[in-house]
Amino acid sequence: MSELKVPVDLLPSDPRFGSGPSRIRREVIQALAAPGSVMGTSHRKPPVKDVVHSIRSGLAELYRLPAGYEVALGNGGATLFWSMAACSLVAHRSANGVYGSFSRKFATTLQKAPFLADPAIFEAPAGRLALPRAAHAVGTYAWAQNETSTGVVAPVQRPEGIDESALVLIDATSAAGGVDADISATDAYYFSPQKNFASDGGLWVAVLSPAAIARSADLTSSARWVPDILNLTLAVENSRKDQTLNTPAIATLVMLEAQISWLLEHGGMAWAANRTHTSSGVLYRWAQDNPLTSPFVQDPALRSPVVVTIDLDHSIDSAQLCAIARENGILDIEPYRGLGRNQIRVGTFSSVDPEDVRALVACLDWILERMPRVGA
Ligand SMILES: *Cc1c(COP(=O)(O)O)cnc(C)c1O
To answer: Organism's domain of life (predicted)?
Structure first.
């Protein structure tokens, strides 16, 4: 235990800064237990189906969906969607941008599928970005809008020179709801709800183009065996009825619906993007101005507005800094375990109040001034 007790008046009003699962607004958690809550009722009946309907129409409004695009959802999170895409969306071969753990996991999933050719990999080291480019015999292009393991944000646009029939799949798990996107440039814009949508894990949600829906109908009725849970066409058919193939986590649906409505009430994606930009800006400026810290992502254009990674001087031990923060109630600023750097990672998702980020910075300054130095 450290002796360092951060003064209470410096502490943020909500001390959760995780990059997923992320902070869930307290009033949303309380609403789950309120009288009239749909918890413990059938997902095939109107009260829960209305929640699913509101999620689908709310997302359509939030992201201004072009005509013909549909919102589908099901169980299993973005990780399940990777396997679903392998079965239901990739016909022969994909091209993948790989620049961190999450973008790599999707590439690996596709590489393991015995019925697909190995993906064309466009790779960059952690902290940088590589987008897939037009490649031979490739009908699907994939990358992550926000690489949560490194804090790199990527543009969402159709790669130049790709076939007209090619699909663009964007992993928007930690971007959707906090970073805007032009959905017309994508065919599947998919995410899990436990990041900017401040809900719990367990579900995947995907915004699908007519071309993606048609590709899935083709592949799932072909000779390829597709398990029902990985069949995107079945998921679309259920979603059209405001249902899911099998029983969903109803609390996750309720909290997702509450967050989408909350974002819309405050001004939609423009408001959310402005808020995450403000919060992350506070941290990036601090990291630049403080001699003990620096932003991990060198190129300012690639710095994520929703997951901020900050390198620490070698005289500061990140594990010790995070432990002292934790003893003072400040949670989940530890770095991504796989990255192995002496750094902190802070989720500045849309539910995080910029005032809390300013308070976090004040707390970090206070701790850094007093904590022991490595080798001292
Ligand atoms: C968190 C995350 C995932 C994995 O989401 P699960 O819900 O755990 O499957 C995938 N991609 C990105 C970019 C993520 O941030």
So the answer is: Bacteria
